[in-house]
Amino acid sequence: MMAGSSPENEPVIAVIYHSGYGHTQRMAQAVAAGAGAGLIAIDPDGNLPEGGWEMLAAADAIILGSPTYMGSVSWQFKKFADASSKAWYSGAWKDKLFAGFTNSAALNGDKLSTLNYLFTLAMQHGGIWISQGLMPSNSKAAQRNDANYLGSYSGAIAQSPVDAGAGEMAAGDLETARSLGERVADVASRFRR
Prior knowledge:
The chain is α/β, with parallel strands linked by helices and about 190 residues long. The protein contains six helices and six strands; from the N terminus they run βαβαβααβαββα.
C-alpha cells in the first residue's frame, strides 16, 4: 500500500510541508507516523511533486506544516497556499479536516502567528480545524523532552536552536508532532463512520 493510501474504511491523510533545514521535515515525518499519512514535500522553489495536488484532493484530512520565518510561513509554503486558490474556487477542500505544525529557532519565535496563518488557510477552504488536544507539560517537574513542553493548543510546535541540526531536535517536540498525527487520524476515523 502506498503512503497515504488506506483500506476503504480508513481515512486518507496527507501531510504537506516545506522544510528549509530539515527540522520541519522531521516534524512532518513524526506527524505522518502518528497519522499513518502520506508526505508531500514542497520543494525549494515552492512546487509540489508530481501527484501532490491529486493526493491532497483525495485526502480526508490535510495536515499543514511550515517553519516559522519572520513571523509567518516560508515563502515556499505561501506559494503553495496561493496556488491552492484553484481548489478554493471550486470548493474542492470544503469540509476536509485540517491541522498544522511549525518549528522555529526561538522558544516563542512567533510560532502562533504561523499556526494562525495555517488555520486561516484551512478556514478559507471551508475546512474543519483539529487542535493539538494535548495538555502542556507545565509543572515544576516538567523537562524539555516532555511532550507539549512548549504548551501549544492550536497545533504542534517545536523549537530548534539555530546552530542545532535536525538530528538534535528535542524528543518531546517530535512526540508532540506524532501525537498530533494520532489525533487527526482518530478524529478523521470518527468522521468517516
